[in-house]
Each structure stands twice: as structure tokens, then as C-alpha cells.
Design a protein that fits this description.
The chain is α/β, with parallel strands linked by helices. It is built from 14 helices and 8 strands.
Length: 351
Amino acid sequence: MPLTLLGQQNPLASSDEQLKVLMGTVGCPPFERRLEQAGLFPLHATGITILQINVGKLCNQTCRHCHVDAGPDRTEIMSDEIADLCLAALAKTDIPTIDITGGAPELNRNFRRLVERARALNRHVIDRCNLSVLLLPSQADLAEFLASHRVEIIASLPAYRAGQTDAQRGEGIFEKSIEALTRLNQLGYGRPESGLVLNLVYNPVGAFLPPKQEALEAQFRKELRTRYDIEFNRLYTVTNMPISRFLEFLMESGNYDAYMERLATAFNPAAAAGIMCRSMISVGWDGTLYDCDFNQMLTLPVKDGMPRHIRDFDPTCLGTRRIVMGNHCYGCTAAAGSSCGGAVMTTTPTQ
């Protein structure tokens, strides 16, 4: 059952087809039923500590696992007007963190303005960076810009070897990633004394769950330090979500049913209780509000009756909203859990 709509610029049709697949999964009970059995349904937000802004699907890479279906040909890009509305909403709240994502968020012409204005409001800023964007001629000063505004970088790196990374992210991407990480280290990123935070993100190349975060972090630290003299602060493990390109891969490879059963079998009530959507709100490139970036890609906005656009942003109302769920949510609640900040159930490792 190939997902013929994936990769085409018709997000609604694509998300509808994906939802039909997810709802009809054999051997995988509805996610909301599992929440009921765990005494967690309905699940509500517990406030908003992160305003995540997805500035669009434009990217200089086309990764196999990308849940955003991003690439160089995508035209869904946040406008100046929507960026202004995001900044206005932020200014009216005390939300401490703004998390900018994409695509490659740095390619949006509003990216630097979002960073500058958020920092002027004394908010912590996170940039979800694919690393290779730092080497584009048009972004020659990007690394220095990020350092000067003390932006936290969360960078994707599937492996510390070229083969695995290039298989997932494209030929030559590993070499570019190492070059970009070296440059960031030279600016002080990843070095404890600098205060410039560089965190890495690992997600599996295939249809399986990530290993334990702490053990993998230690392994990455040893290998990157030994092989390339590269330092970083933390490594986050993220489960591949069964949506967009990764869903297409699962279907075409015959791994879909087994992967969904694996996620459902590993359902962890403790991870579900700490799921990231309870403390964040996600803004789409067109200003629509979602519980998380994954719901955004499935065109599942916040619950009916809630403000659904950034122009109507109401942190009090949205901070207690009921979370919109689906079977894709098993990806965030399996085993140690998965979030934009890595495993949900983890302890801080000592270095």
C-alpha cells in the first residue's frame, strides 16, 4: 500500500491518507484506549513553557526519516505577518523558551528577526539545525550569529560514522556535519565554560526503537571526541514517528505493522504522563496552532473550542487545553518516551 501522496505539495490529502492508515492498524489498540487503561484520559496541558514555531518546509536536505516532508522544493514558508504575530504573542506572555524549527529554519528570512526579538525579550532560543545549512554560502555568518545571540543549537546526527548518516540524510552529509560541528566548537559551542549549548539528536536509521539515551550519549561522546575532537553538551534520542516519509518507508518495506506493534507493546504510562505536548504549543507556518509538531504534520489542530490561530493566542486557555491524540502518539510514549528534548524518562548523566 504505497502512500502515493507523500512528497507532493498537498498536505491535507497526504495527512488524511496517513491518518486512515494509522487508525486501521492491526494489533495496535487505539491510543486513547491505552490512556484510559492507564488512568490518564483525557490528557490535558499543564501550562506552556515552550512556544515552538515551525517556519516552514523549505530545507537544503531531503532526509528519509523527515516527519515534515521537507526539501528544497517546498513552498510552505512562514510569512512576515505570521512571524510578527508569533512575536506579539510571545511578548504578551512569560513563556521562557522559543523553539524554532522547520525544514531548515535558518533559510526563512524571518529566522534572524525571530531570534533577535526573542532574545531582546530575554527568552531562551532554540534552533533545530541540520548542521549542513551552516556551510551554505548564503549562511556564511550564521554560526557567528547564533553564538552572538547565545542560541541553543539542537543538531541532528544519526550516527558517528558516515555510512549510517548518509544513508538517512543524503550523500556527503556526514562530512558536512563534522565540518559544521568543528566550526561550532571553535566558537565555543559544546564547551561547558562557554555557556553555548550544543545538543545532538539521534534517531534510528531503521524500524526500531532507539537505545538507552545515557549509554548512547556516552558512546557518541567517546567516538566523536576520539575520531574528530568534537565536543557537545547532551545527546537526545528520538523515536521515529510513523508519519510522512518514515511512514512511507515502513509501508514500502513491509515493516509498518511490526513497528506499530513494537511501539504499542512498549507503551509506558509514566512516559505518557510526561509527554511534551502537555507543556508546549506548536505554531505552523501559516499560524495554525497545534499540540505538537507531529500533529501539525497530520493537520490535527488543537481541540475545537480552543483558539486555533496565533492571532487569537490565549495562553491561559491553551495552557489547560485537552490534547488531541492519535495512534502516532505511541511514538512518544514507547519505552523511555520520546520528545523534542529526547527521552522523557531519563536521568542527567555525569561526564
